[in-house]
Design brief:
Strand order of the largest sheet: 5-12-8
Helix content: 10-25%
Strand content: 35-45%
Order of helices and strands: HEEEEEEEEEEEE
Number of strands: 12
Largest sheet: 3 strands, antiparallel
Distance between the termini: 79 Å
Length: 170
């Protein structure tokens, strides 16, 4: 009977150790890991990052799928060696008067060869039957450290809380 109890005790300890190993969190540089592998510090590796055993191809960027879901490789960027920096920005609301107006936005990354595209985050104001949409034009000028957005508003109206989004390539 004593041998049976000893065997049960050994098996119980073995089971607890295995459960602990299966649920363990390993910390490097931390004594309180919060993930399966928790590294407090820099990580250096020489191989590929391979979510779901997929290495991706040249020009792809790894995209998050949110918490507890493996990331995936996104669409391939064209000419990755030619594009060094890019970003999406919002102008914030401003008043667009009737006539000619320049909006200057500071951007430390902007250089004279930078380019951007502009989109309106909604519909332009309803201006009646002839709507006047063609009466608002925009040209963009890149300078060192800033963008100049040149508006020509020939609608006959001034607009408050006007805003836009722009995607810049540096």
């Amino acid at each position: 009977m004593e041998k049976l109890n000893t065997l049960k005790l050994i098996l119980s300890i073995f089971a607890l150790i295995n459960i602990n190993i299966l649920c363990a969190q390993v910390g490097i540089g931390t004594t309180t890991p919060t993930e399966t592998l928790d590294v407090n510090g820099n990580v250096k590796f020489s191989g590929a990052i391979m979510p779901n055993n997929v290495a991706g191809i040249v020009g792809q960027i790894l995209l998050s799928n949110g918490p507890n879901v493996p990331p995936v490789w996104g669409a391939e960027y064209l000419n990755p060696t030619q594009t060094t920096k890019m970003g999406k920005f919002y102008s914030g609301p401003f008043n667009l008067p009737n006539g000619y107006f320049i909006l200057t936005l500071t951007d430390a990354n902007c250089v004279p060869t930078s380019v951007c595209s502009v989109t309106w985050p909604g519909n332009l104001p309803n201006l009646g039957a002839n709507n006047g949409y063609g009466n608002i034009t925009l040209t963009v000028e890149a300078q060192t450290g800033q963008w100049l957005f040149h508006f020509t508003n020939l609608t006959g109206y001034s607009f408050g809380n006007f805003e836009f989004a722009y995607f810049a390539h540096y």
